[in-house]
Design a protein that fits this description.
This protein has no helices and eleven strands. With 117 residues, the chain is mainly β. Strands 2, 4, 5, 6, 9, 10 and 11 form a seven-stranded mixed β-sheet that branches. It has a four-stranded antiparallel β-sheet with strand order 1-3-8-7, with no helix packed on it. A hairpin with a 5-residue loop joins strand 5 and strand 6.
C-alpha cells in the first residue's frame, strides 16, 4: 500500500519561503505523476502543480507561476514544492498526491502553510 507523507509546512511572513517535501513509501512511484494540491478554509481543494515521470511540469494556478517550483527525486521517492515570495493568500493545507493510471489515487494527510501579513 502506498503512503504519502508531507512535511515542511509552517508559519512564515509574507515574502518568505518554504520547501515542502512528500515522501512516498510502499513502492516506488518513479513512473507515476505526482503533484501538489491545496485547500484553504471554506474553499475547494485546488490543483497547484504536478510533475510527470519524465519531469514534465504543469502548474495549475497562474498565481504561483514564477514563485513555486515542483521537483522530484526518484531515487528518494520524493517530490518537493519550493515556495518563494509567499503571500497571505497562499495560506492553506497542502496535499501531496500521486496518480495511478492517470487518476489521482494516493493522497497524503496534508501539511499546513500559514503566511502572515
Amino acid at each position: 500500500q502506498v503512503h504519502l507523507v508531507e512535511s515542511g509546512g509552517g508559519l512564515v511572513q509574507a515574502g518568505g519561503s518554504l520547501r515542502l517535501s512528500c515522501v512516498a513509501s510502499g513502492r516506488t512511484l518513479s513512473s507515476n505523476t505526482m503533484g501538489w494540491f491545496r485547500q484553504a478554509p471554506g474553499k475547494e481543494r485546488e490543483f497547484v502543480a504536478r510533475i510527470g515521470r519524465s519531469g514534465d511540469l504543469l502548474y495549475g494556478l497562474s498565481s504561483v507561476q514564477g514563485r513555486f517550483t515542483i521537483s522530484r527525486n526518484n531515487a528518494k521517492n520524493t517530490i518537493y514544492l519550493q515556495m518563494n515570495s509567499l503571500r497571505p493568500e497562499d495560506t492553506a493545507t497542502y496535499y501531496c498526491a500521486a496518480t495511478e493510471r492517470s487518476v489521482w489515487t494516493y493522497w497524503g494527510q496534508g501539511t499546513q502553510v500559514t503566511v502572515s501579513s
